[in-house]
Write a structure and sequence with these properties.
Blueprint: E1 8-11, H1 15-26, E2 31-35, E3 58-61, H2 68-78, H3 82-89, E4 91-92, E5 97-100, H4 102-115, E6 119-123, E7 137-139, H5 147-157, E8 162-168, E9 171-173, E10 183-184, E11 200-205, H6 207-219, H7 229-232, H8 244-249, E12 277-283, E13 290-293, H9 302-309, E14 320-322, E15 325-331, H10 334-337, E16 343-344, E17 347-352, H11 362-381, H12 393-404, H13 439-468
Parallel strand pairs: 1-2, 1-7, 2-6, 7-17
Antiparallel strand pairs: 3-5, 4-5, 8-15, 9-13, 9-14, 10-11, 11-12, 12-13, 16-17
Helix pairs in contact: 1-11, 2-11, 3-4
């Protein structure tokens, strides 16, 4: 251990900040983790726990052979990720996805951070640029960065933070769902982490019910975000978390081919009549008493949510533990402002991690926190940190954030937008890798080959990183 070293400061105790602090301490370097909750609350957090999940409780697909996020899961596990350890310890049935009990997940991380002797947790808000004496800082304040700090960063960079709106989905009490109309099943009966193949509650709609549901969404009253009117005018939604009513406006069949798709599901109450659309609910806590409406992020007013969602067969008497809501996210124009080590070009002592960098998603945020923590620790110890190969999921994500995006345009609004990890971020394979297969078979082979290459290249990088220590 290097307890005589000057501490690294991490601002923000969300997924990215908690992961960064954990990685720094595991490298033997002292770290001070600053978290403003619970003394200062946010519009969406409800506890003072570290790494509190405020939207979905899903970490998405866990299979590294078929999904880019699954590759990222595998890489983080191999790099001693605290976030993945917590997720694996408190996983819930969710078909092929990795879903977690959000309360137990946060408690696990809060406990581990508190028990790590090299981490000092201070409950305070950092509302200005960190003192100059803090020469190695990670800012992981997330999409809800406090306005004073965001303003200070804007003054330092000369850029206004970009912003987008996203929304959270409603959560329903399980006992209030009518199981004489709904049923348990995962799409195509797929089993995943902690899953049985019957992990979702499915509520079917006929063609007429679906049409009425879509029409009601389009016409419903909506809540306005709590930001200034001039900030609303040009603020887009993140496409990975669109409100359900915005999707409905994009076309009558949009929802039916999105979160309400009926494919791979058979209604045991009416096997002869395939549902035209389906609302799925996923277990939200270990007790199985709460289920969230999958893909049903919304900015509808509460009375409209109650009226419309209770028209869904099986949810007529639904009682909601939480209704949907909306909040404003901020992120940097990272390809222009950050270098390849996630440092601010205008002030290299400041390194960024998590959603403020322009990555999107729980796992991606934590992954950037993992990389930033390891980079900061290597700097403090005077060690080299070999760049992560862009053929790995983590390297591909960092490459997108720090310069792999399309050319930066100085005149006019920047085109950089939040991004989940996906196969499009990986360098292409040599043409011969996928062979002469075609169609779906070729796609599966391509994903498997990308996954194999990522595993091989991460192993090589780990050997190189160990040699640099």
């Amino acid at each position: 251990m290097h307890c005589s070293l000057t501490p690294i400061h991490v601002i923000g105790g969300g997924l990215a900040g908690s992961e960064a602090a954990w990685q720094i301490a595991r490298a033997g370097v002292p770290v001070v983790l600053h978290e403003m909750r619970p003394s200062r609350r946010t519009p969406v957090h409800s506890t003072g726990g570290l790494a509190e999940l405020v939207c979905s409780n899903s970490f998405r697909a866990d299979d590294p052979q078929t999904s880019a996020i699954g590759i990222l899961h595998r890489e983080m596990r191999s790099l001693d990720s605290l976030i993945m350890a917590a997720a694996d310890a408190h996983k819930l049935p969710a078909g092929g996805a990795l879903a977690v009990d959000r309360g137990q997940f946060s408690e696990f991380i809060t406990g581990r951070i508190g028990a790590q002797p090299l981490i000092t947790l201070i409950r305070e808000e950092i509302d200005a640029l960190p003192p100059e004496s803090w020469d190695n800082v990670i800012i992981a304040t997330g999409p809800l960065t406090s306005p004073p700090l965001a303003s200070a960063l804007g003054g330092l960079t000369g850029e206004r933070d970009l912003a987008f709106f996203d929304a959270i989905a409603p959560v329903v009490h399980r006992e209030s769902i009518d199981m004489e109309k709904a049923w348990f099943q995962s799409r195509y009966d797929k089993q995943g982490p902690a899953g049985t193949g019957a992990d979702y509650i499915n509520c079917p709609l006929t063609k007429d019910q679906y049409a009425a549901f879509v029409a009601a969404l389009v016409e419903a009253d909506r809540a306005e975000p709590h930001v200034l009117a001039e900030e609303c005018a040009d603020t887009p939604y993140f496409n990975g978390c669109l409100p359900i009513e915005v999707m409905a406006e994009r076309g009558r069949e949009t929802l039916r081919h999105g979160p309400m798709k009926p494919f791979g599901l058979t209604n045991p109450h009416a096997e002869s009549a395939k549902p035209y659309a389906v609302v799925q609910l996923r277990q939200d806590n270990a007790l199985g008493t709460l289920y969230n409406m999958v893909g049903f992020q919304t900015k509808l007013k509460h009375h409209a949510q109650l009226d419309i969602f209770r028209t869904v067969p099986g949810l007529e008497s639904a009682r909601f533990a939480r209704l949907g809501g909306m909040h404003r996210n901020t992120f940097l124009n990272a390809p222009k402002l950050l270098d390849g080590a996630l440092r601010l070009k205008a002030a290299p002592r400041l390194r960024f991690a998590g959603q403020i960098t322009g990555c999107e998603g729980y796992v991606e945020s934590a992954a950037i926190g993992l990389a930033a923590g390891r980079m900061a620790a290597a700097d403090r110890k005077g060690e080299d940190f070999p760049p992560l190969p862009p053929t790995t999921a983590l390297g591909a994500l960092i490459n997108h954030i720090t310069g792999g995006h399309i050319a930066i345009i100085d005149a006019g609004p920047p085109s950089f937008q939040p991004m989940n990890v996906n196969f499009g971020l990986f360098p292409p394979l040599a043409p011969k890798v996928a062979g002469r297969r075609s169609g779906a078979e070729k796609g599966r082979a391509r994903k498997a080959a990308i996954s194999l290459r990522a595993a091989r290249d991460l192993d090589a990088w780990r050997s190189l990183a160990r040699a640099a220590e």
